[in-house]
Amino acid sequence: MRMQRRWIVASLMFMAASGAQAQQTGNSTALISEALNANVATSVANTSADITLAQVYIGSQVEAPFIRDITLRLNDSAPVRYEFSDTESRALQRSAQYQLKLSGLKEGVNQLRADFHTATASDKGIKVLKQGQLTKSFSSGSSGVTLQLTLSKATLMSDAAFDISIRESTAGTTQNQLSTVDFMMAGGEYFPAASTLIRLMANNQDATLSEAIQKRLSACHAALGLQSREPTQTGDDLLTTRFNQALLSIQQNKGLEATTELDAIGLSEVTESSALSLRDQANLVLAYHFLNQGQGDKAISAFERIRSPGPYSNAGLLGLGWALLLPVNRDGVANPITTTRYPTIVTPRLTADIVALKREQAPRVPSASKFQQTALRKALVPWTELIGRDPTDPTVQEGMLAIAWTLYHFGAYAQAQTDYTRAADQFEKARGWYDSAIASVSNGGMIAAINARDAVDDNGWARANASLPPMRPRWWLGNTPEPPKTVADTFYFERLLLSDDYSEALQTYRNLMMADSAIKDSDNALHSRLSAAITAQRAQLESIAVANLTAQKKQLDKYLIEARFALATIYDRPELASAQ
Amino acid sequence: MKQARLLKSAVVAILALHCAASAAADNKPSTVGSITHNNGLNSNGILQIATPTILRVTTSKPLPANPREALIQYDRLIELDPDPVILAEALRRSADLRVQMIDASGDFNEVELRKAISNYKRLLSEIPTYEHTDRVLYQLARAYQLNGDNESAINSLKTLVASYPDSLRIGDAAFRSAELLFASGKYDQAEPLYRAVFNLGKDNPLYRTGEYKYGWSLYKQSKYEQALAIFIPILDRDLPAGELTDSSSALAAPTVKGSPYVAETLRVTSLSFAALGGGKAINDYFAKSGRDPRYYALLYSDLGNMLIDRQRYTDAAETYSSFIARYPKHALAPDFQTQVIAAYRKGGFNELTISAKETYVDLYAPGSAYWGKTAPPAKVLTELRQDLSDLGSYYHARAQKTPLTETAARQSDFSKAASWYKKTIEAFPDAPQVAATSMLYADALYDGGQTEAAAQQYAVTAYSYAANPKAAEAAYAGVQAWQRLAREVAETAQTPALLQSIAASLKLANTFPQHPKLSAVLARAANDLYAIKDYPQVIVVAQRAMQKPMPTELRRETQGALADAYFAQKQYPQAEIAYTALLPLLEATDAKRPAANEQLAASIYKQGEAARDAGDLRAAANHFQRIARIAPGTSIQANSDYDAAAAFINLQDWKNAETTLETFLSRYPKNALAADADKKLAFAYQKDNRPLQASEAYARIAARNTESADTRREAAWLAAQLSDKANATAPTARAYEYYVSNFPQPLDRAMTARRRLADLARNNSRDDALYQRWLRELIDADTTASTRSDVSKQMAAQANLELGQIAAAKARTLTLSMPVNKSLPKRKSATETAIASFERAASYGYANVTTAATYEIGMAYRDFGRALLDSPRPAQLQGDALEQYNILLEEQANPFEEKAIVIHEANLQRLRQGLWNDSIKKSVAALADLSPAKYGKREQRENSYDSLR
User: Fold this and answer.
1) Count of CB contacts below 8 A, A vs B?
2) This prediction's pTM
3) CA separation for the pair B88, B130 (Å, rounded)
């Protein structure tokens, strides 16, 4: 019962993490508001048009593939490249537009060349990258040019390609600007977005757009902490409501009700990323519920439905393994695997379970039945898949222990010892990373990196991921250990972002930074106040990061402790030690 | 193989393609399920795919224990700040392992040990609720102990005992802490902990040890009775069933053999009893408890043995004795007494040993109260025999060691020894060594002063046991005993003793003709026979004895006895021979030599006497004289010499007599017979007409103040006379002088001697002074004599006369010279002196003297007168003066002439008294000269004168 409740709490926390719940300090909010006003005023004053710059809006049709990156070159001027983050790619599909300016526009015929990569964003998570190219000649007059590149969806005959529309104006339409705002918002740049929206609102003559502007402005305000979030009622949200209801049912001990609902969610046909994610989560909760109920069969099918890769695939793989091992009292199996130990992701109980084993009783070496052996082998499959993944993931860590534990309990002592040793070594290495990371954060490394990456404006991916460069795939497998700084810079950020505290603090920090960036040249007084706020926020951010990393490390320590304890148990055989 | 691998690779490649294609084909999202199904499963429907290596489960044996690796893991996880449960387990196990490793390897690694201790302590302090805290405390104690910190170990264990009464380890902990306390000597603290173990009951594995050590801790605190209360039940329980007497067999019993504590318990039980006072303590304990355990004998035995091992021999003996005291009728009682003996012996307590043996004999001799009518077993008899023998030997030896001065003690011991020997013989009359014992018995009796009994026992020893190697010795000892008896007893009883001795000696001689002491024995017998005056037997036995070679001394003795026997038998010639044979056997310094010599001399002397008695003086003298030759220096020699001289004198063989006597006197001047000898010699000289030698001899006699006065006087007189006879003036004078000075009485003979002396001085010596002295002596002797005799008076008269004559003569020599008045007084005085003497002479009234004196007076006067006339005339006187002077002279001289005439006439007048002698005649003649007128020309041959009528 207690375990179940814990589960519910954990799930709720996961849900909360999926949205950005602004919780900024009053001081920051006031400053941002002030900065926003100042910025709006300044921007209006500075509005000007340069006809040597070509305005470019890059968008996408809804069903078109993701745009991964694009390199644009106007005439002989230097090429401009932008790499889109996942979120940005998806935003483009939802009418957002990426705005950029190309220099070197001349009157008369201009040559535009675009090289780009697209990706098919499937549920399986496999992205099939395709390279595309576009060459377009156009003429330009004195009023400037605005180009709009819209990626169309691929057909059976042809790959996805950009459609270009050209408009003679130094600025895009209001719609263009709204789309640009969407893009900004997708990238978390709420401050410039809000600024733009306020200006649009002021200049807007199209009443049909007012609502759109207002809606976005409200979102921006909410993100900046200037106002509370408005409740939304989308399809995703409906699913979320059902999910929460199911969790509540579990909490209220209405197992059947809950499992039915969760099963329904888990089997629902959805395509939206968030919905898919929620579906995976539902399956996971359902599966663990069955697992805890000892209903291995049902747990297995639920686990198997979780997408992999996917945010819950690691937890799914881990749970599947246990579910496969779960004794199934059928076919006259008289000797089920009995253990009080069932792993959990958030609060593993492995250690306590092992300790619970009476020390006086040497670990049994059961002669595993054929059925058990089969179950074991089956369990090892998901776990083996799991342990190849990010070793800083607690589920991966637990997976390593689970394999070793299982092997040990089936009498594969040598293998167990090897696996425990490998796990311990891996954990030790990870501890090092954490230590380095914490040190780096404390020394301002994290902030420096955030600032540096935020300064980059050709990489949405980077910005989307807390303005950090993408991690090298399977970075942990590198033969030559990467310099600690690099590792520290790369490995922990993604998991930090899973923390609401951190995400919010980071958002606030970035909001402040963007506000400051917007007004620093015009309002010194405000700038200095913002700087102070930034410093304070930075300290808070670092504090959260350190606390989070420390907690992660602590979690890791638990696994390391378990590995070492298990190894010690393997080596420490009192009845033999005394004979030595 | 290589091909196979290639093929496999190809298959995998195809498979991969296939998978991708199928995924693309069905366009289903990749899920946990799909990737699981696609991995590691046996079949994909087309190809059989081997299970990937990583998925193979290979069971194996449990890995060998590797404590070091385990420690590494524990240590590292402890650093990781694990939750309390894990931390507790890791701390405990890592510490356990360290302790175990140090324990097992024996290599003391202090760092590791400290780490272990630190871990335990951390566990105790940080996780007080740890469910195995008791174990931790226990192990911590072990670690402390390894680290040498026993105190902390004890404290830890005590905490365990106090705080975890239900712990499985409580017994162990209590026991171990108790052990540590015990080892460090804190028995009082160990005691309650051992008791705690003990109180856990029999089911506790440490019960036995704890019980045992509980007892020990009590013991160590000197709580012996309490300790025994623990130990005795252990023995009750663990010793084999049935009555036990011997610990080694009891401990060898299969039920006991495996138990490590029974033997030790037995030992400490003994120790406890020992501490409580030994065997008596056992007795007391049993008495108090009212129950003697079935192994009581074993307890005594063990305690005794232990005490012996600790060299507490008397205590051991006392322990054995205690058994006997408590169980006097016990079958083992004799054995225990044997143990008592052994204990004392080991301790070197001879007297106690002996006392114990006495006790043994007293208690367990056949017929004792213990045996009653039962015959003692051989073992006891053996012991008895040994003890009796030892007792005899002991007292015998002790007696021998006792200084002779401690007579009483010696006697007592010898008598005890004798008594034990006697008992031995009585108890074991057929024992092979009975003869030897008998001998010892006799010896003890002998040395103990029971001489007669000893002698008899020696006889028994010598003649009662067949084939007794010491028979001869015993026989001899018997003789010696009788000998001693003879010395010891009163004189009246001596003879019987000697007779016994002699009899024994002769029996020995007859029985053991080859006895080495035979000659000695016989010699002794001879002496004894001599002592009882059985001289004929002496002669027989001594001669028999001397047939054998024998030591000089013995021979000397025997020879002496023989000689003495002959002498006693008056067989003097044989005696002389025997003594003569004896003398060479005697050293010059031998005290007996003079005696022997004397005896030899006596033998000869007796022969001399015999000859003398037989009238054969010559032979007698010869015998007497032999002594000086054969046995010179003997006391009898003087006598014999004297007797020889006497014989010669009787034979009137003066020469031999003289020689013999001279020799005698020169040899024995101090001899009592010397005086007689001297007399005899004097006599012999006298007879041999050697007056001078005789005189000298008499003179010696006279000088000998041992002689009677008469003898001396006569001898002196004889000496003087003989000397006078020999005309030896000086000796004669000396002899008379000696006589006169020593024997003034009788007066007459002394006067005679003086007279003779005077004569000798006048005639022989012509010494006027001496002559006059003797004359005066004559006068004085007479004058002073109390009773004057005629002779003396006459001699005195004569002496006066002669003195007068001398004075007169002297006066005549004094011729007057000038001046006359000077010379005349001298002449006158001289003349008057002479006349005075004449007058004194005449005054005695003896005619012849008176007449002579008268004559002389007359002549003196005449001479004086004539001297005057003849005196020189002074030279200046001439003529008338001269004539005048002449006339004067004549006038002066004439009265003197007249006086002379008167005096001569007076003398002539004595004719009337019938006197006629030379003096008268000479007066006549003088008258004729003086008064020629009146008396001139008268026929002088006329027989009668008128005037005289």
Assistant:
1) 184
2) 0.53
3) 7
